[in-house]
């Protein structure tokens, strides 16, 4: 009851999910949030990947910690007013591992939902841990989600695990807004030839099989150079998710 009251002033609640880790889920989440907030919308991110919280790092507010007020928990504020709740903003340093067990992770997420002072938001994006474990299940049960955005690479292992997510969403009656194919191809900066290191057409085939919409294909970005942090409107993650963000807005 407390959670539904606390989330009452949030217009859209979208979870970003994937079958596997390392496919770009957090990058996509941060990029979409940035694009939405830049266009003047009020945006929050719940970093529900408690064991691998990356959102504060990606949005360049790693050093800041969440504060507690009389009314509840205060989110960390990133560019364009993006409100972030993350386990990374609790711990002393980001190389301190979070060794909490499953039930503790779920109760931390519930606290972020019940006690975080989100206020009025147009969008709350939830960055879920990969797979169909405790946290994705409990989020789908606890929050009335507007829908899911599924991120996958074209590799067959990623695809396999995504099928499980799609079936889970079906069972839970949660809408899948669409699929994002990440690392879809690599364009040689020299001759502009496109190569497909993880396979070609696999994500499209999967989305066709389940009658889902493929809402974006992001290339492997040679300019990433291992710097994952979004520091400006021109950062790769922002550029690569600009059109995906518009598509999501149109679909809702
Ligand atoms: N399209 C891309 N091009 C280049 N690097 C990418 C791309 N997408 C993600 N990455 C990089 O891959 C790594 C994993 O991405 P991340 O968003 O943390 O994945 P996940 O949240 O699914 O585990 C990060 O270092 C990220 O910067
Ligand atoms: Mg992640
Ligand atoms: Zn070339």
From TrEMBL:
Matches recorded under PROSITE patterns: MRP
Taxonomic superkingdom: Archaea
Binding of ATP, residues: 19-26
Keyword terms of this UniProt record: ATP-binding, Hydrolase, Iron, Iron-sulfur, Metal-binding, Nucleotide-binding
Molecular function via GO: 4 iron, 4 sulfur cluster binding; ATP binding; ATP hydrolysis activity; ATP-dependent FeS chaperone activity; metal ion binding
Pfam families in the cross-refs: ParA
UniProt GO BP: iron-sulfur cluster assembly
Family (UniProt): Belongs to the Mrp/NBP35 ATP-binding proteins family.
Function: Binds and transfers iron-sulfur (Fe-S) clusters to target apoproteins. Can hydrolyze ATP.
Oligomeric form and interacting partners: Homodimer.
Record-given protein name: Iron-sulfur cluster carrier protein
């Amino acid at each position: 009851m407390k959670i539904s009251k606390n989330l009452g002033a949030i217009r859209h609640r979208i979870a970003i999910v994937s079958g596997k880790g390392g496919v770009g889920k957090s990058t996509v989440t941060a990029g979409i949030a940035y694009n939405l907030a830049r266009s003047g919308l009020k945006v929050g991110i719940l970093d529900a990947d408690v064991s691998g919280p990356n959102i504060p790092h990606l949005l360049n507010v790693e050093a800041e910690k969440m504060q507690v007020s009389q009314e509840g928990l205060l989110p960390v504020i990133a560019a364009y007013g993006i409100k972030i709740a993350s386990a990374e903003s609790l711990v002393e340093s980001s190389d301190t591992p979070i060794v909490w067990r499953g039930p503790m992770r779920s109760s931390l997420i519930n606290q972020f939902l019940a006690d975080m002072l989100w206020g009025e938001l147009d969008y709350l994006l939830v960055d879920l841990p990969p797979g169909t474990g405790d946290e994705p299940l409990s989020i789908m049960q606890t929050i009335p989600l507007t829908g899911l955005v599924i991120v996958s690479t074209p590799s067959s292992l990623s695809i396999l695990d995504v099928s499980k997510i799609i079936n889970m969403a079906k069972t839970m009656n949660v809408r899948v807004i669409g699929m994002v194919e990440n690392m879809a191809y690599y364009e040689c900066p020299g001759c502009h030839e496109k190569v497909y290191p993880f396979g070609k057409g696999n994500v499209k085939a999967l989305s066709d099989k389940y009658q889902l919409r493929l809402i974006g294909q992001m290339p492997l970005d040679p300019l990433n150079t291992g710097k994952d942090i979004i520091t400006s409107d021109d950062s790769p993650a922002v550029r690569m998710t600009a059109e995906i963000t518009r598509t999501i807005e149109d679909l809702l």
